[in-house]
Amino acid sequence: MWAVEIDDDDYFAHWALGVAFNFQRNHDIAIDEIKRSIALNSSFAPAHAQLAGALVFFGHGKEAHSVWP
Fold first, then answer.
1. Which range marks the domain in which residue 62 is found?
2. 28 by DSSP, 3-state: which?
3. Predicted confidence (pLDDT) per residue in 41-55, tens digit
4. Cα–Cα distance, 6 to 41 (Å, whole number)
5. Per the count of CB atoms within 10 A, which of 2, 26, 50, 67 is most buried?
């Protein structure tokens, strides 16, 4: 979390934080962080994959289909 506090525009830090929250089952926060990562760098494919996977896992299959580029 400190990396995001240092640089809130670091797409990789937001993605990593989202992955960590995903593992902790903090679903809403995880999805928000991953979406922030994509907003900062829309070409970062791992964030798209992580977001789609998280959405499917948490029961949002239709939304997951729409976020995959």
1. 2-67
2. helix
3. 999 999 999 999 888
4. 18
5. 50
Q: Specify the pLDDT at position 69.
A: 60
Instruction: Return all residues near 42 (Cβ < 8 A) that are at least 6 apart.
Output: none
* pLDDT, tens digit (0-9, with 9 covering 90-100), for 7-26: 889 999 999 999 999 999 99
Is 67's pLDDT higher than 80? no
Instruction: Report yes or no: 55 and 64 within 8 Å, Cβ to Cβ.
Output: yes
Question: What ranges in 8-44 are assigned the alpha helix state H?
Answer: 11-23, 27-40
Amino acid at 52: A
Q: What is the CATH number of the domain that holds 42?
A: 1.25.40.10
If one counts the domains in the chain, the total is 1
